[in-house]
Design brief:
heterotrimer; A mainly alpha (about 325); B mainly alpha (about 300); C alpha/beta (about 260); A: mainly alpha; 13 helices; 2 strands; about 0% strand; B: mainly alpha; two-stranded antiparallel sheet; 12 helices; LivM-like (chain A); cell membrane (chain A); transmembrane (chain A); branched-chain amino acid transmembrane transporter activity (chain A)
Chain lengths: ~325, ~300, ~260
């Protein structure tokens, strides 16, 4: 580490703090979320808890989308559909008296995997803009299917008879318990995704994002890997849907509106793509900003929309790189 | 099923398809020529509808309303292009999607503030009210026929414009190879602005035309936008001809599907199950159609590029 | 296909490694590949020369699977691989380099090669272990990097390499898939004198250990390296033979060398 050489200055001395910052961001985020309930008891506890639970749940969904956008370059505009699948798995089973979270989750994962396998197999045959529009269209297809399910509330959706049961106990009825279930789920999925993107599988996807032809020339067919990733991401979003249904105790087609898919993309981009914790950070900033603005005026969208546009035009790369300063 | 009922549904499908075409034509050209994915295109449709409703109320005459709405919609489209979209042409698709998504959020809220959240309605203009008889004693509203005629006229106009004029030649060349057109010394920026403004006006025209038959409300452009996407994906990005055929296909399939699915299912299911399943299946038909098209032709029916 | 092979005899294979059987491809009215038949022996270095626009790169694209021929067959180790995808052909042992450098710019030099090693070593549907720490992939990758004098640059992002180093890396990646046949599309294009000398030395070292189909404009390099040379003009092979045979072929002289002299 020479201190004289000017050109080296940028890369060498910054290297150690940058990597430190890189693990600092997720540590601070998770530590903050871990102690939040303790702080919440000094405020309007149930409001803060339910808001932060929602933040974590949508952070989980944004995390799944970051796998697709940030690591595989697949801009899916239909990720909310998978949240919907998870939420409706809870709602539909609950309305038939099946309240166990294990069974509901299993059904959500299976249904989302099947939907992802079918729609992914078709969507991934296309590239770029076609992929964006087709995932959007499949998302809408599911949305309209949900609105036509008269037995399950149709347009209006349905209120859950109760939160899911855990091995027959109503553990999740406590807001704090639900909070920590969401927290632990988010933490575990985050760690699993960290491993996934660094694994052989993840490396193939990261390579294919940079240069798909080169990947084929060394024997990889990106399609198979992308399809498996699409299924994994769909299942994670469905898991978020299961938690979301329990948080709001309400399921409706709005859960999977295309605006929600757009929100998720924004969270990922706002937080910084391809870092995983960036997506969580993006969800936190997004939902808190929404909450704050909604406190000022019922027409908060009129402020939020232009903010979104300005972010895209002027904050390139998102928040996380700003903190980490890894990129110029 | 009685033939006349079928005919009415076919006409409804045709009318719906032509409205979709008016929106999809601009979208596919903007997309094909500029490689710019504009989610806010549906907003132009909504703005056209609101402007028509406002000017009709002000002047007390739908025709005047329409005539005032068109240039205003055009001006508004160009305003957005200069203010925001221009900065996005060089960006990747992800940025384009997000920024135009922001435009949707903003404008949906803006119309809510300006005109209220409640739907507005516009009366059918007097000369075009009433209906004409079809076979079998059924009648069909004249106004819907007017939409069909107007849609076909615009389609013909577009065909002549794109295939028979110099600007049209540049647009077609731009859709198949934009860098080449720029290299030939054409002012591509001006061409972009022209195409964009024209597309915005067509969408605004579609919005204005539907005001007497649909309610004018915030967010009315969103679902239409997604259908327009389905249309241009099936038709092939950049192809006006593809957009025309695909729009009619989608319009007819969607309309007939909603009408016939419950009926066909009642042959094998009991009536209430049939109507419920039918209503669930019908809205999915066009997406299935899109999926099948893409399986066979991943670049759509009439790909403009290469 | 009754050409006589000048490649050394090999014990493990009876026929040639690669056979192009009446390959043809048109782009509209243009015949880019016009009834091309040729063979590459298991340890032969077969070079294709020809003027610009002769269809050399398109031919490599068809052999590697990036483009499909309109008619004709491609046999690899006796097996018809014409219907296989590029990835499947690569898995069979058919590697290629690209005329325009094709690397993974965000990955380190080591990861570029380790990923190619990963491509031929078992399943990549492994989700848990950190791939960049797998010695089973990194060790063979380092051996290859060493062979190409790139070991000191192992941790540098590939996008930051010099042009000559990128050309070297391009070859290293292709070789790391442990191919039986290497398709090289102008490996010397755009390199400096020292860089091309280094690459030629590398190719000399490789020669005899596997089949190589080489497209190259640098005549000196081709005449130094090739066991056999085919001359491609307007999509057709007008001559095949040893360096001397090709040099003295009157048709070649008029169609190709003559054209260059003029």
């Amino acid at each position: 580490m020479t201190d004289a050489a000017r050109p080296v200055e940028q890369s060498v001395p910054a290297a150690a703090p940058a990597s430190l910052r890189r693990i600092m961001v997720p540590i601070v985020v998770f530590a903050g979320l871990a102690i939040a309930p303790w702080i919440a008891q000094f405020g309007t506890e149930s409001f803060i808890l339910s808001l932060l639970t929602r933040v974590m749940v949508l952070g989980l969904a944004a995390l799944s989308l970051d796998l697709l956008i940030g690591y595989a370059g697949l801009v899916s505009f239909g990720q909310a559909a998978f949240i919907g699948i998870g939420a409706y798995a809870v709602g539909i089973l609950a309305s038939h008296g099946i309240n166990g979270i294990a069974l509901q989750t299993a059904a959500a994962l299976a249904a989302s995997a099947i939907f992802a396998a079918i729609t992914g197999a078709i969507s991934l045959r296309t590239r770029g803009v076609y992929f964006i529009m087709i995932t959007l269209a499949f998302g809408q297809m599911l949305f309209f299917l949900a609105t036509s399910l008269a037995a399950y509330g149709g347009d209006d959706g349905m209120t859950l008879p109760s939160r899911s049961l855990f091995l027959g106990y109503d553990l999740l009825d406590s807001d704090r318990a639900l909070y920590y279930v969401a927290f632990v789920t988010l933490g575990l999925v985050y760690l699993a995704c960290r491993m996934l993107v660094a694994s052989r599988f993840g490396r193939v996807l990261r390579g294919a994002r940079q240069n798909p032809v080169r990947m084929q020339a060394i024997g990889f067919s990106p399609y198979r890997y992308q399809l498996v990733l699409y299924i994994i991401a769909g299942m994670i979003a469905a898991l978020a849907g299961v938690l979301l249904a329990n948080t709001s105790e309400f399921v409706s087609p709005a859960t999977m509106s295309w605006q929600r898919s757009g929100d998720l993309i924004f969270m990922v981009v706002l937080g910084g793509m391809g870092s995983l914790h960036g997506a969580i950070l993006g969800a936190i900033v997004f939902l808190l900003a929404e909450e704050v603005l909604a406190g000022f005026t019922e027409h908060w969208h009129i402020i939020f929309g232009p903010l979104l546009i300005l972010c895209v035009l002027y904050i390139r790369g998102g928040i996380t790189p700003l903190i980490e300063r890894t990129r110029p | 099923m009685p033939l006349s009922l079928f005919l009415v549904q076919m006409l409804n499908g045709l009318q719906f398809g032509l409205i979709l075409f008016l929106i999809a034509a601009g979208l596919t050209l903007v997309f094909g020529v500029m490689d710019f994915i504009n989610l806010a295109h549906g907003v132009q449709y909504m703005v056209g509808a609101y402007l028509a409703a406002m000017f009709t109320a002000l002047t007390g005459n739908f025709l005047f309303g329409l005539l005032l709405a068109l240039p205003t919609a055009l001006a508004f489209g160009l305003f957005l292009e200069v203010l925001i979209f221009r900065k996005l042409y060089e960006r990747d698709h992800l940025d384009q999607v997000l920024a135009t998504f922001g435009v949707i959020i903003t404008l949906n809220e803006a119309v809510k503030i300006l005109w209220g959240a409640a739907p507005l309605s516009v009366p059918v203009p007097e000369i075009l009210s009433g209906s004409i008889p079809l076979i079998g004693g059924l009648r069909y509203p004249i106004y819907r026929i007017a939409i069909i005629v107007a849609g076909l006229a615009v389609g013909l106009l577009l065909y002549i414009l794109v295939n028979r004029t110099k600007v049209g030649m540049l647009v077609r060349a731009g859709a198949s190879n934009a860098p080449m057109v720029a290299a030939l010394g054409v002012n591509i920026r001006l061409l972009f602005t022209f195409v964009f403004g024209f597309g915005a006006m067509l969408a605004g025209f579609a919005g204005a035309m539907v005001t007497p038959i649909l309610s004018v409300e915030p967010g009315m452009g969103d679902n239409v936008l997604i259908l327009a996407f389905v249309v241009i994906v099936i038709g092939g990005i950049g192809s006006v001809r593809g957009a025309f055929l695909a729009a009619l296909l989608i319009g007819v399939v969607d309309t007939l599907g909603r009408f016939m699915a419950p009926m066909l299912l009642s042959a094998i299911l009991d009536p209430s199950t049939a109507s419920q399943t039918g209503r669930a299946i019908a809205p999915m038909l066009i997406y299935v159609l899109m999926a099948v098209t893409l399986c066979i032709r991943p670049a759509g029916l009439f790909p403009a590029k290469r | 296909m009754n050409e006589t092979r000048s490649a050394p005899m090999t014990a493990r294979m009876t026929g040639p490694l690669l056979v192009l059987d009446h390959l043809a491809k048109n782009y509209g009215a243009l015949k880019v590949t016009d009834d091309v038949s040729l063979t590459v022996g298991a340890t032969e270095l077969h070079a294709i020369i020809g003027p610009n626009g002769a269809g050399k790169t398109t031919l490599i694209h068809q052999i590697s699977g990036l483009a499909q021929p309109d008619s004709g067959r491609i046999l690899f180790a006796g097996e018809d691989i014409t219907p296989l995808t590029m990835a499947e052909r690569a898995a069979e042992g058919l590697a290629r380099s690209f005329q325009i450098t094709s690397i993974l710019p965000d990955f380190s030099v080591l990861e570029n090669v380790a990923l190619a090693v990963q491509g031929r070593s078992g399943s990549s549907f492994r989700f848990v272990r950190n791939a960049s720490r797998e010695e089973a992939l990194n060790a063979p990758a380092r051996v290859i990097l060493n062979q190409f004098d790139l070991l000191p640059r192992a941790d540098v992002p590939a996008g930051l390499l010099s042009y000559g180093e990128k050309r070297q890396l391009e070859l290293a990646i292709a070789l790391a898939t442990r191919p039986r046949l290497l398709l090289l599309d102008e490996p010397l294009a755009g390199t400096s004198h020292e860089e091309s000398a280094r690459i030629i030395a590398t190719l000399k070292g490789l020669k005899g250990t596997l089949g190589i189909l080489l497209i190259e404009h640098d005549m000196d390099a081709v005449f130094q390296l090739a066991d056999r040379i085919s001359v491609l003009v307007y999509g057709r092979i007008i001559a095949t033979g040893s360096a001397d045979e090709v040099r003295n072929n009157p048709e070649v002289r008029s169609a190709y060398l003559g054209e260059e002299a003029a």
